[in-house]
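Before a colleague's protein record goes any further, I have to sign it off. I want your independent view on whether this chain really folds as the tokens say. The record follows directly below this note.
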Amino acid sequence: MRNYKSIFANVDWVIIILYLLLVFIGWINIYAAVYNEEHHSIFDISQRYGKQLLWIVLALILAFIILLMESQFFTSFAFPIYGVVIFSLLAVLLFGVKINGATSWFQIGSFKIQPSEFAKFATVLALSKYLSILNINMKDIKTKLMAVLIIGLPAALILLQNDTGSTLVYAAFIFVLYREGLSGNILLFGILAILVFVLTLIFGPINIIIIASFSFILFYTIIKYNLKATVISLAVFSIFTYLFYSYDMKPNVIYYGIGGALLLLSIYLFVKKEMKDKSTHFLGVLIFVVTCFFIFSIDFTFNKVLKEHQRTRITVLLGEEDKLVEQIEKLKIERDAEGISKEDKQQLRDDIGAKKYSLRELRQGNGWNIKQSLIAIGSGGVTGKGFLEGTQTKFNFVPEQSTDFIFCTIGEEWGFMGTFVLVSIYIALFLRILFIAERQRSIFSRVYGYGVAAILFFHFLINIGMTIGLAPVIGIPLPFISYGGSSLWSFTILLFILVKLDSERLLVLR
């Protein structure tokens, strides 16, 4: 063991100060989120804010223990730590308890712990260890497969626990791999796949196939500077756009015929003999065919693979509530029109009843959460209503307000200025982590630093995004702010391992 002075001599105090600020802000706002007239003391351990204080004290002890340890411990035991966590993820499937629909917790008496939270730092350690091995190259297929295996194994086990939110966090590792040499094309394809998925849910697969056909034609003509094909494609695209936005187009034989013709035209133009490089146009056609297959598979995936609550979260995000309201109003107009038969009127009544039921289900679920969250944040104005003065918070309009939706408490009671300060602290933390990662002398520490930044940023982006209606409600905490011992300890371990590695960066070369 080293003396007290040497332990803190080279630590990055900027990171530590930002961490303490976030933890303190979290504790204060957990108190505000669950405050009631019967419990005044912020130290009351029978309440969530009192328990959170205990978790904070234990987190600080964990941080101190990490700083006491040698940094070589984490490089030497990265794989064993990963193995222990994988074992715990398997064990929780057999012996865990179900909370909020997810079998993700071990429970001993009143004490609960969530292994999936600790899997994050363990995965970062394992990935860092693997990518720091000599002669590892991200361009090699074997390296890519092993990296995907390290990331995908805990993600798959967490998905089996029915915890989709925690599973999606592992998508953030693609940014780590990109920093270490993964082709940017893979990152681009991933972003495009998400975009196509969302657009297909909004406009339907046939519409997106037609748009993809136009995009394919334009891509070809841009490469080849074929004026004739460009003019034709732009003209047809303009006509289609006008019809699409001017009329409520319903799929029919003519509609599908136009889509099929455009699909054949796009393939014909691309494989035309002007394209001399056969491998290039073959790859292009292959990508286009795979894209079409992906588009048609989205409907099956959405309706048959995703569960009801997952579909609801996505439809809420895509504004399904507004669409249902608009559809109900249109059906009412048709129902009240003159000259309509009794059979058609009854059918319209049935359709209206079904859509009203869907609307009610939507509003009682995640739609309600998001709407109340937006009301809370919007009502805070510039400076907020004041500490413990938030009406949406005080009367529990927003479920899970001390955990997943704690950002709306900050927005209501501290206003725009409060949220601006919080976001600024997070941005400062992310930039500092990236700065620390880049100044490392070892590959292990650099990869680990980027892993820390990726995971924290993903949590930050999605959590705040879902409270303001820009991301689906997937139930992941806001780092260092949301209530919960497992998440706080996990994030603390994740961050302070980086602090420790950085404090000894001059002692290692790889």
Summary: Confidence is low (pLDDT under 50) at residues 248-252. The chain has three domains: 4-181+401-507, 187-305, 309-364. The radius of gyration is 27 Å. The first helix runs from residue 4 to 8.
